[in-house]
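Memo to structure team: turn this sequence into structure tokens by end of day. - J.P.
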Amino acid sequence: MNDRPYNILFLCTGNSARSILAESILNHRARGRFRGFSAGSHPKGVVHPLALMLLERMGMPTEGLRSKAWDEFARPGAPLLDFVFTVCDNAAGEVCPVWPGQPMTAHWGQQDPAGIEGTDIEKINTFREAIRVLERRIELFTALPIASLDRLTLGNRVRQTGKS
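Reply from structure team:
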């Protein structure tokens, strides 16, 4: 694609848990090749405290994480996006803004840990499972030889990663 880091936007409805987790995980593992961002179609305005707590315990970056609307990334001056991944089924079904640069899109849906009812341990375990799934998908994605794949093959591999 080019010499700058690849910009990836993770989307969900509330931008309080899954997309925030993915942003932090990618930025932790990026090694200068990728920059992660997150946003929501209807942001809650706050990051879920369990997301922040677990990311901090794992040594992942939390500075600057905030719940924000996806239209921030469709405005002039926003980072040029290379990939946009929806991590919830609701956001995947919504009409997204037009993203500058025509980024590749894929759906990496998974259960919302912020919506789980139960004991504190059950909630923490649900967040840990979300982190585990996102880490695996991000690991597979960042291992792809992006520059050497044609767009069709890359698109298929990226979509397949979301099913892993």
